[in-house]
Structure formats: C-alpha cells, structure tokens
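Record 1 of the preview.
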Amino acid sequence: MSRSWNRMQVVFMALAVMSLTTVANAAAPAKPKGLGDPGALTSLKVEPNLADKGITMRGRDARQQLYVTGVYSSGQLRDFTHKVKYSVAPAGGSESRRDRAGDAFN
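->
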C-alpha cells in the first residue's frame, strides 16, 4: 500500500506542476509588438509654424515654445524637440537658450 500511495503522490505532484506551469504561461502578459523600424527620416516639422511663414518674434521679451517632430517614411512621428540644434537669424538678433526647459529662445 505504501508503494502505490507513493506513486499516487508522484503522479499528483506531476499533474500539479504541469497545471501550475500552464496557468503561469497563460497569465504571462504578451510581449508588446512595439512600433517597429521607423524607416528613413524624411522631414522635420517645426511647430507652431502658422501659414508656413516660419517663426517671427518681435520685442526684447518675446518668447515662443517650439516643438520639432521627425517624420519617417513609415509614417511614424518622433519628438526631436531636444535633439535638434536651434539657431537665430539675423545673428545677434536674439539668443537661443538651452538651459531652461520649455524655452527655446529668450
């Protein structure tokens, strides 16, 4: 009786382990697919750029927050606001400020 009882315990334990493994695999979250390869960068959009006339600021205390978006061949959009280098024309007309979050120009 002791041997058959031991065999039943082994079979029961094996079934329990298999059941727990199945439940654990079913409960595991699916790995997200992600966006995939964006392809080649095709353009940069600087916003706000009303009527495609560029950005004009007048006055010593004028400020404008800018957003730069990269457009890829796959149609994906990525934020380039902090990756691009800003410049001002004419030189000396204003100054670019990178030391304050949210201010591109001062």
